[in-house]
Specification:
Blueprint lengths: L1 H18 L14 H5 L8 E6 L3 H13 L8 H4 L4 H8 L4 E11 L2 E10 L15 E2 L12 E8 L1 H12 L6 H8 L10 H6 L2 E17 L6 E11 L3 H11 L5 E5 L3 E6 L13 E5 L5 E4 L2 H8 L9 H6 L6 E2 L1 E5 L1 H18 L3 H9 L7 E8 L2 E8 L3 H11 L2 H14 L9
Helix pairs in contact: 3-5
Length: 429
């Protein structure tokens, strides 16, 4: 890890010196990956950082494995000698990652941030998890103008299954036989297995939230409350799951279904108790496309599908997505109202339960109050480019990475403590 810090520091010093002169002096022995990264990030703003990390993934994996091997039973002995840093990094698909770059510059009250992960060859392992070719963000076409959160992401969950299987073949985690057994089990009593669902999750998923601050919903017997929030979750290609739920509805008195030429609608057969009776949660399948929706009410879905002047026309969205690409593999939008309510809910949790390490960590990672935020991830030929407009620059990112580097050690220490001071259940009387 010290080698990463040394490289990082030397790059920062060189760039700071360069900014004070009329030109940009280059190192006589330039990193072979510098040009690929520098063309995707921007020099001269608040933050500019480049790090050649070729080989560092193996060193980090070696450090992590040495920690994990100190935990009895986590890495079985029969697999420990077969799981070496090179194998682990290859299974995770990180062996081709060569360099990373970060940049930020201030634009009004926000920062335009870029992160680039440069890799050679095809995407493998974790890099396959978040899709392949960039595409237009279709959910933006139905998100209403008052939407407070819009998330859309390409996903290939099969990549995770393959990683778990590869680790299991080395004697780490779930064995391939147990994995196959789990994949063959029906889900929630439906006539559909977990494996059949996961096999269809090379897909695109999305979420829309719209907060109504004028409608507080109070939990009975508690002082805690939250604003009424409409939601729409959409996942492509999973219509068969909706069919399986509808088949169960034929024998379940608490679920009812209705089918038309355009839609299959599944909803509770009884009215929900307060405060949840403000919602009419429903699962819908669009017959023509096979898309499955989970919504706060069919009325909210209908309103979204009839949207004309949507969220892309709002001033906050335009501000959040200035200079961001409108095609990619992942997108996230927060409105100022959303960031305000996220902090407000956390404040009420602290008021009820008191502050803790968990609430402090949550506060640290929440977006700043009262600002919009836009984020786009996009696969390019030689890497993954992430761009955002945020009230925080990549200075915060570097600080976060510093804290994240401590997590493996903290996990090991905590797990070791529990290993020696395990709380056991009292014997049955």
């Amino acid at each position: 890890m010290s080698l990463i810090k040394q490289r990082f520091a030397s790059c920062l010093l060189c760039l700071l010196a360069a900014c004070s002169g009329s030109g940009v002096p280059m190192a006589p022995q330039r990193s072979p990956h510098f040009d690929a990264v520098s063309k995707e990030i921007q020099l001269g703003g608040t933050v500019y950082a480049y790090a050649d990390i070729e080989g560092d993934a193996e060193r980090a994996a070696d450090f992590l494995l040495n920690l994990l091997r100190d935990l009895p039973g986590l890495v079985p002995q029969e697999g420990a000698h077969r799981l070496n840093p090179t194998t682990l990094v290859r299974i995770l698909g990180l062996h081709n990652v060569r360099a990373i770059g970060l940049s930020s510059y201030e634009t009004g009250a926000l920062y335009h941030n870029r992160s680039f992960i440069h890799h050679d060859g095809s995407r493998e392992g974790l890099l396959k998890l978040f899709g392949a070719e960039p595409a237009a963000f279709d959910l933006l076409t139905i998100a209403p103008q008052d939407a407070d959160l819009v998330w859309e992401q390409q996903l290939d969950v099969r990549a995770l299954v393959n990683i778990v299987r590869s680790l299991g073949e080395l004697g780490v985690g779930v064995t391939p036989q147990d994995l196959d057994k789990a994949l063959g089990e029906p889900v929630l009593g439906l006539d559909m297995t977990l494996g059949a669902i996961l096999e269809r999750l090379n897909t695109t998923a999305g979420l829309i939230l719209a907060v109504d601050e004028s409608r507080p919903l109070r939990i009975p017997g508690e002082s805690f409350w939250f604003p009424y929030t409409d939601f729409l979750f959409r996942i492509d290609g999973l219509g068969e799951l909706a069919d399986a739920i509808a088949d169960k509805a034929d024998f379940d008195p608490f679920i009812e279904s209705e089918r038309t030429e355009q839609w299959l609608t599944i909803r509770p057969a009884i009215r929900l108790p307060p405060p949840w009776n403000a919602y009419e949660p429903s699962v819908l399948k669009e017959i023509a496309t096979g898309r499955m929706y989970i919504v706060s009410s069919p009325a909210f879905l209908k309103g979204c599908l009839s949207t004309t002047g949507g969220v892309t026309q709002s001033a906050d969205f335009i501000r959040a997505f200035e200079q961001l690409p409108m095609t990619g593999n992942g997108l996230m939008y927060f409105s100022p109202r959303m960031t305000r309510q996220m902090h407000a809910v956390l404040d009420r949790v602290i008021e009820m339960k008191g502050s803790s390490v968990a609430t402090s960590i949550a506060r640290f990672f929440l977006p700043d109050v009262g600002y919009p935020m836009g984020w786009v991830a996009r696969n390019v030929v030689d890497g993954l480019l992430i761009t955002s407009n945020s009230p925080s620059s990549h200075k915060s990112t570097l600080l976060t990475l510093g804290y994240a580097a401590l997590l493996p050690a903290a996990v090991v220490v905590g797990a070791s403590f529990l290993e020696h001071f395990e709380v056991r259940k009292p014997p049955a009387m």
